[in-house]
Amino acid sequence: MRKEILITGLGGQGIVLAGQVLGMAACLADHLEASFTQSYGPEARGGACSAQLIISDRPIHYPYVREADILVCMSHTGYEKYRHMLKEQGTMIVDQDMVRPGEEAPGDVFFVPATRMAEELGRKMMANIVMLGFVTAVTEAVSLQGMLSSVADSVPRGTEKTNIAAFNKGYDCGQASLKARMKKANR
After folding, report:
1. Per-residue pLDDT reduced to its tens digit, 173-187
2. Kindly report the CA angle at 139 between 70 and 148, in degrees rounded to 5?
3. How far apart are CA 50 and CA 7, in angstroms?
4. I need a surface site. Which of 125, 146, 157, 173 has the fewest CB within 10 A?
5. Residue 39: its pLDDT value, please?
């Protein structure tokens, strides 16, 4: 088992934290190997940033994503910059209010209103956690229990409940997306 995951967006969206949370879940809860690298511009907020994560049941010898199995785009700029890195049979997950992939979008594309869902919960800053819930549901790259534990351990004290609620909202949305696809395929 080996998954190369690339999460991209803008500074201030919690992209780096999202990668760290996934990596912690993989290592600490699922007992897998994980490597994590991050990239961001000199601007703290609004600049392009990415988190690259490799999860494997074997040692990881090269820490950078070469071909993403999973590409998570939370900004259109990130989509434009990294879409070419998605494997032909890979999974792309985009924040539908922030990214408009064209017909040339590679792989299997899922749309999730992560930012809008976070705003409905009263905290736009939790869009990354909503997205992690969705990613967990549709990719199964890490376990649900591992992610719940990792989210609770990674967010600021006092915000655990609201972040878990955001994660669960994203997870439920992902489950609903999968059910809708299965229903459509069985027609």
Report:
1. 999 998 988 887 787
2. 110
3. 6
4. 157
5. 84
